[in-house]
Design a protein that fits this description.
The complex is a heterodimer. By secondary structure, chain A is an all-beta fold. Helices cover 0% and strands 62% of the residues of chain A. Chain A has no helices and eleven strands. In chain A, the strands form two sheets. In chain A, strands 2, 4, 5, 9, 10 and 11 form a six-stranded mixed beta sheet that branches. Helices cover 0% and strands 58% of the residues of chain B. Chain B has strands at residues 4-7, 10-13, 18-25, 31-37, 44-50, 53-57, 64-70, 73-79, 87-94, 101-102, 106-110. By secondary structure, chain B is mainly beta. Classes of the chains: A mainly beta, B mainly beta. The interface between A and B is medium-sized, with 24 and 25 residues.
Amino acid sequence: KNEVEQSPQNLTAQEGEFITINCSYSVGISALHWLQQHPGGGIVSLFMLSSGKKKHGRLIATINIQEKHSSLHITASHPRDSAVYICAVRSGNQFYFGTGTSLTVIP
Amino acid sequence: ETGVTQTPRHLVMGMTNKKSLKCEQHLGHNAMYWYKQSAKKPLELMFVYNFKEQTENNSVPSRFSPECPNSSHLFLHLHTLQPEDSALYLCASSHDISPLFFGSGTQLSVL
């Protein structure tokens, strides 16, 4: 079993829809990261959080440390949001990664 | 642009070839990583270097050989690879508790 589990694995949404991607982890962490990977491979860090909630534009990330759970929300989704979203946690000097959620936003 | 540069972006090699992947960062980070990304699998950590010293080697076959001449440069030397080694190879760097900064990756195909 992977230390980080994401759901759903694949997600298709209509432009404008509100999107939620979930992440659960089983290890003690110092921080949780949400990453975005576009076709072509490059990975960009969207958020690093250890408690509460962070917002950047249309993206919102929340974390519940007691429940070992995080969510990434996208409001008013747009086709350019189409990408793979990866949840990663830092535990000591190790990073553990989810398998990613492939999001497609249709115009 | 994340500040981590990887070359080449794409590489096709035969099983008897020898090639090298290069990674460079000028972010002042002290740790550099090689990850392998295969379809439908989580990122797999291959090697970690901290201040040029290798601190992690995740049971990677010896046909992959890392080199870290200084804290800004990281290489992955490849020789006698197998078709199942075809994957996206990602370099990343970080400093203490900072996020990982990833390069764009090298898409490797072994024929």
